[in-house]
Amino acid sequence: MSRRVVRQSKFRHVFGQPVKADQMYEDIRVSKVTWDSSFCAVNPKFVAIIVESGGGGAFMVLPLAKTGRVDKNHPLVTGHTAPVLDIDWCPHNDNVIASASEDTTVMVWQIPDYVPTRNITEPIVTLEGHSKRVGIITWHPTARNVLLSAGGDNLLILWNVGTGEMLLTLDDMHSDLIYNVCWNRTGSLLVTTCKDKHVRVIDPRKQQVVAENFEEPIALQEMDTSNGVLLPFYDPDSSIVYLCGKGDSSIRYFEITAEAPYVHYLSTYSSKEPQRGMGFMPKRGLDVSKCEIARFFKLHERKCEPIVMTVPRKSDLFQDDLYPDTPGPEPALEAAEWLAGQDAEPVLVSLRDGYVPVKNRELKVTRKNILDNKPPVGPRRSHSTCDANFSRPSLEDLLEEIRSLRQTVQAQEKRISDLENKLCKFTNGTA
User: Fold this and answer.
1) By three-state DSSP, how is residue 411 classified?
2) Among 9, 172, 251, 281, which one has the highest count of C-beta atoms within 10 angstroms of its own C-beta?
3) Whether 52 contacts 30, CB under 8 Å
């Protein structure tokens, strides 16, 4: 008689559990816009949720500890003129978040540690370059201030948020709408899925597709008959991928291994109500004292419900095998270094004593002075052009115009002085 061999894994018993009612976020008007992003972004300080808003687009930011019923007058982050479609926290600054909108812009915001008394309406920087709605944004995992956006114009644009300028524009790579974009661990490559049913691995600095339309999948997993969009969340520390279906009421999770059959089903967390969106906490925001290996923030129609995933252990000691060193908030590279061709592994931190979020760090945008560059010789251009480099003839014309204005001002000053003298004589004479 043959015996079935049970595969050894420390994650065979991962249990999901919702928090108590008073630990949820209640009375939130979650956005009803028809878009396939997660609508929620979380970090060790805040939970951000895209909400319904009249006359434009908005999202709400709540401190993690501010649970319970949310005041109907709680300030929002507003500034977009059309619905917000995606939000993403900066991995290197817990007070900075980016938002993408149907109004074709990307905005980057500084969120204070205290709860503001009125709406936040002024972004640190507005990034304009797409001609259609922007539905996807994602920060570079290791380089400071590098942000990627993807729009309905089938463009990928990489930005240096610290200077507010485009680094790279990747066009002619996608023939249809881009569904999703993800970086690899070091940020040297990115992968995209597209409506044309192609998966592409792209080297953004070489601006070329290095792999496309793979022949056969190494593993194929049948899910169910639901037609809802799957939101995948991958934890590289535990090699677990979580699949959350929009409109579904369950979270399925699988362990990924290097040997066949590669994908191993672990379990399913099920609840009664379907999810409108889902946030996924970075590893440094988890409670290691409770053997928490993942935390989701499930969006309902009017609330946000945290769901805690744990691996039960009898010991109260720190579990080294569950918590290898994980990416921390310090970037490994500057934007210019990455653009020049450097790659680096994330700067790791230990979770042995838990992670304490750092205090508010301000993001400053330093725009380059266009006058620092000597203007090139060339044909005259219209002053309405988007190019910041003036040609020499147009600069000379401006100087001539300034001289002419100065002469006009001097002539008017003399005329005013003469009139004042005449008025003075007139008033003295009548006196």
Assistant:
1) helix
2) 251
3) yes
Q: What are phi and psi of 16, to 5 degrees?
A: -100, 140
Task: Name the residue among 323, 325, 361, 328 with its Cα closest to residue 347.
Answer: 328
DSSP string, 264-296: EEEEEEE-SSPPSEEEE--GGGS-GGGTEEEEE
Residues 253, 138: Cα–Cα separation, whole Å = 23
- Dihedral of alpha carbons 360, 358, 364, 190, sign: negative
Taking only the tens place, the pLDDT of each residue in 233-249 is 999 999 999 999 888 89
Q: Which two tokens stand for residue 247?
A: 């409109």
Cα(54)–Cα(360) distance, rounded to whole angstroms? 30
Task: Give the span between the Cα atoms of 254 and 227, in whole angstroms.
Answer: 20
Q: Tell me whether the omega of the peptide bond preceding residue 261 falls within 30 degrees of 0, making it cis.
A: yes
Give the pLDDT of residue 332: 97
Cis peptide before 116 (omega within 30 of 0): no
pLDDT digits (tens, 9 = 90+) for 52-99: 988 789 999 999 999 999 999 999 999 999 999 999 999 999 999 999
Torsion angle defined by CA atoms of residues 385, 364, 375 and 384, in that order, rounded to the nearest 10 degrees: 10
In the numeric block, the tokens 């507003």 are attached to 78
Residue entry with tokens 């817990």: 94
Predicted model pTM: 0.83
* Structure token digits, residue 218: 């190494």
